[in-house]
Amino acid sequence: MGASSDPTQDGSDEQQKRSEIYTYEAPWHIYAMNWSVRRDKKYRLAIASLLEQYPNKVEIVQLDDSTGEIRSDPALSFEHPYPPTKAIFIPDKDCSRPDLLATSSDFLRVWRLPDSTNSDDAATTTANNNGNGSRGVGGGVELKSLLNGNKNSEFCGPLTSFDWNEAEPRRIGTSSIDTTCTIWDIEKEAVDTQLIAHDKEVYDIAWGGVGVFASVSADGSVRVFDLRDKEHSTIIYESSEPDTPLVRLGWNKQDPRYMATIIMDSAKVVVLDIRFPTLPVVELQRHQASVNAIAWAPHSSCHICTAGDDSQALIWDLSSMGQPVEGGLDPILAYTAGAEIEQLQWSSSQPDWVAIAFSTKLQILRV
Questions:
Q1: Proportion of the chain in helix, strand, coil states, percent, rounded to 5
Q2: Coiled coil located at which positions (predicted)?
Q3: How many CA atoms, within 13 angstroms, populate the side-chain half-sphere of residue 250?
Q4: What are the structural domain ranges in the chain?
Q5: Helix, strand or coil for residue 17?
Q6: Which 3 state secondary structure label does DSSP give 123?
Q7: Could you tell me if 18 and 4 are in contact, meaning their C-beta atoms sit under 8 angstroms apart?
Q8: Which residues make Cβ contacts (< 8 Å) with residue 101, sequence separation at least 6?
Q9: Which of 40, 108, 190, 332 has the greatest CB tally within 10 Å of its CB?
Q10: Are the C-beta atoms of 217 and 199 separated by less than 8 Å?
């Protein structure tokens, strides 16, 4: 377990290479992963395990750019019930709010990280909590909220994903296999809105503004919802083959006219313009196996990164989309990892850096 930058055979290139790729090896298979956006926590990420057992793990890791090592802070590792399907740090660049991390699995949980990771108290607190409601957790990480949107049933529909509203950070939207999307007010720890969003399982959700979100489902549709009119939704896209599930959704924060979605077990990414529903504006078709993750550039309206089972992370320039390109669009950058890439995140606070996860490895790449 540990981390290193990847030197090359050629000594003259070593320093150059060192600053381009950093690798961390976790003691388990990584699935959920997210960059911190706080300006005072550069190169910090949360990673979570994918273990076929009830207790799973979350680690907070950070790159020390003076040594080129990514290190886990043992004081901030904690147990988590079931594998988290997603983890997101609070969208708070200015550090004006508590340092929070949200995770989804059986329920939505909000964790509070200590203000200082160096406190003696944090180092001596024992990590014996599994996130079921007791407040103290290992290493000074505190379970602030456990949010259950289905209190009338002893069974919970597992949460497939969630998104934290950047424009209104008190709001988190979750998606569930029970066909619903739930909008939480995390300050009140209360459900703001719960909608039956689709005919089948909802696999992903993304905010497009203060009161607007979209979701994708096993029913093969992308739907957009406006919280000012909860009775209606707009179908932006439907799979060309009936009941072909859509599994991931990315909404372009720099140009909210555009979103991208992944079709289950498909090597293509579909890019949509919400002004022209039903027809993709472009299809990205250079992956050789199923695509697992997409991330729009946080600083550019026309760049997107995609990653998949072909072990490739590809960056695309979509500035020409809408104009026919003979043979289809090619990526402008490609990186090949050591195994199938399951997770991809583009840092909004340091947009030169993309993080990928494959097998037990986390890599951060300068783009």
A1: 5, 45, 50
A2: none
A3: 25
A4: 1-105+108-147, 151-212+223-234
A5: helix
A6: helix
A7: no
A8: 34, 46, 58, 60, 87, 88, 89, 90, 110, 111, 113
A9: 108
A10: yes
The span from the CA of 118 to the CA of 114, in Å, is: 9
Check: CB of residue 27 under 8 Å from CB of residue 47.
no
pLDDT tens-digit profile of 128-183?
A: 444 554 445 545 899 999 999 877 666 668 999 999 999 999 999 999 999 999 99
Hey, how many other C-beta atoms are within 10 angstroms of the C-beta on 171? 22
- Which residues are paired to 20 by β-bridges? none
Q: Which residue has the tokens 């969003």?
A: 197
The torsion defined by the Cα of 266, 182, 36 and 78, in degrees rounded to 10, comes to: -100
Q: How are strands ordered across the β-sheet holding 202-207?
A: 202-207, 212-217, 221-226, 229-238
Question: Which ranges of 103-208 does DSSP label H, i.e. alpha helix?
Answer: 120-124
The pLDDT tens digits for 102-114 are 999 999 999 999 9
Question: Mean pLDDT in runs of 10 for the chain (367 residues)?
Answer: 45 56 98 97 97 98 95 97 98 95 98 71 41 53 94 76 98 98 98 96 97 98 96 94 92 98 98 94 97 98 98 97 82 98 98 98 97
DSSP classification of residue 136: B
